[in-house]
Amino acid sequence: IYGLPLQTLESFRMSVNFCLHNKVPIVKAWPLMLLRGTPLDSITVREKYKLRERAINASEDIDRVQVNIPHVVESSTFSEKDWRKMSSIASLLAQTEGDHPSEI
């Protein structure tokens, strides 16, 4: 999952590379969505980590997201630009499933 509290672009990349270096055959990544009623959905958590959600439009052409459903796209530790880079990594993983590169 990318977009987690305290996650950074670099920590996400390191997690993916850990899997790739250890030859995990299939690595998938999906964006964080705050499900109502779950611990991450609380006001306290949202404020503490400055979680910002935004619905992604179909015209944005971002792979691996649910269109028109809010995703966490920014926090205190990553920008929306970083989130888009994480999304690109997730897309690359999907495109190379079964034959992942050795590093991202």
What does this structure look like?
- By secondary structure, this protein is an alpha+beta fold.
- 34% of the residues lie in helices and 9% in strands.
- The protein has 3 helices and 2 strands; from the N terminus they run ααββα.
- It has helices at 9-21, 43-48, 80-95, and strands at residues 52-55, 70-74.
- A two-stranded antiparallel ribbon has the order 1-2.
- It starts with 8 loop residues before the first helix and ends in a 9-residue tail after the last helix.
- The model has no long low-confidence stretch (mean pLDDT 93).
Quick synopsis:
The chain has 3 helices and 2 strands, in the order H-H-E-E-H. By secondary structure, it is α+β, with helices and mostly antiparallel strands.
Quick tags:
two-stranded antiparallel ribbon, alpha+beta, 104 residues, 3 helices, globular
Number of DSSP helices? 3
> Beta fraction of the residues?
5-15%
Described by the principal axes of the CA atoms, the overall outline is globular
Radius of gyration: 14 Å
**Low-confidence runs of at least 5 consecutive residues:** none
Strand order of the largest sheet: 1-2
Broad structural category: alpha+beta
Mean pLDDT: 93
Order of helices and strands: HHEEH
Task: Report how far apart the termini are.
Answer: 16 Å
Give the helices and strands, then pairings.
Blueprint: H1 9-21, H2 43-48, E1 52-55, E2 70-74, H3 80-95
Antiparallel strand pairs: 1-2
